[in-house]
Amino acid sequence: MSFQDNITTVVTRIGTEFKAIRAEMGDFSTLDTTAKNTLVAAINEIKTIADSALSGGQTAAEVQTAIDAALAALVDTAPGTLDTLNELAAALGDDPNFAATITSALALKANAADVYTKTELGDPTTNYIPAFEAALL
Questions:
Q1: pTM metric for this prediction
Q2: Is the pLDDT of residue 36 over 80?
């Protein structure tokens, strides 16, 4: 297997892992909240609803039932190892800029033409981003 094939394999694997993490997080558009762009926004909406319910004369049990239902919708079908924000963060290395970190790391890769020029290494000008993006689909 050539160097180029090895790099393509690694980039594809990274993309596949991203795809798996996204799938486990679930589709935010299916949340029963109006805030669907981030988990934090959805959680904040749920808290606002709960706070409002408490001032509206509902019992603690009714509020707890509403919170439990909202959390179940938020977690959706995520596995137990990825059903909290902390677990998702840990899966991404606690890096709030994970995508940028990976992109930067890929950009810093040594240029094959500068390191080693044997023909079996493949074309040093190969763009691996399409392989990464294809793996995300």
A1: 0.36
A2: no
